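For reference, the entry.
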Amino acid sequence: MANDESFALHHRSQAADDRALRHAQPAADPRRAAAPRPRDPLRRWRIAGLILPLVFLAAIEALVRAAVLPEHLVPAPSTIAQTLWQLGGERLGRHVGASAMRVLAGFGIGSALALVFGAAMGLSRRLDALLDPAFQALRAIPSLAWVPILLLWMGIDEAPKITLIAIGAFFPVQLSVVAGIRGVDRKLIELGEVNRLSRRALFTRILLPASLPHIFTGLRTGLSLAWMFMVAAELIAATRGLGYLLSDGRETGRPDLVFGAILLLALLGKLSDSILKAFEAHVLSWRDTANEPSAARGVR
C-alpha cells in the first residue's frame, strides 16, 4: 500500500512538473515558424525586361521629335497614345472586346480538337500514319489562302472568322501533343505495365503528366498564332476589331492608327500568354527543373 501511495505521489509530481515546463516555454512565433520565401534570383532582370520596352518607346519619341525619323512613316508614341485616346474608351473597348472574344472562341475550339486528335495520333501509330500527311499539307497553307474558301462556305458572319482562328491554333497544339506523348521515357511506360495499369490509367497517370510540358508549349504557340490569324480573320468583312483598325488605318493613310492597333495586339498577346504561363506554372508545380529557385543559382 505504501508503495502504491508513493507511486501515485511521484506520478502527480511528474505531471505537475510537465505542466509547469509547458507553461514556462514561450509560445512559438508564427513569423519564425513560417519558412522564408525563396528569393527570386532573376527579379532585377524581370524588372529590366518590363522597363526595356518603355526605354525603346522613349528613344523612338526622341528620334521623331529630333526629325531623325520621318513622322509620316513612324509616328511618335505620344501621337499614337493621343489617337487611341481620341477613339474613346467605349469605342476602343468594342474593338478590343470583339478581337478578344474571337481569339478566345477560335483558340478554345482549335486547341480542344488538337488535344483530341493529338492524343489519338500519339497513342496509335496507325492513326498517325493515316492522318499525318493530310495534316502536314493543311498546315502549310497560309492563313490568307483560307479566307476566300471560308467566305464561300460560311458567308461573312462570325463563323468564318472563328474557324480561321481555330485552324491557326490547331496545328501547333496537335504537333506538340503527339511529340509529347511520343517523347515519354520508355522506362516509365514499362514501369506502368509492370504494375499492370490499364490503358486508361497508363494514359492519365504516366503519359499525360509526362507530356504536359510539351503540350503547354504547343498551347502557348497556338495562342500566339491565334492572335496572328485573328488579323487575317478580321479582313473578312469585319466592322469591329483590331484587324479592322489596321485595315482602316492603312486605307486612310493613318500610320498612327496602324501602329496603335499593333501596340494593342502586342499588349493583348503578352497578357494572354502571361495568363497561360501562370496556369502552366500552377499545373506543373511538381516539376524539379533547372528553372526552379533552388537549381537556378548556376543559371546566368
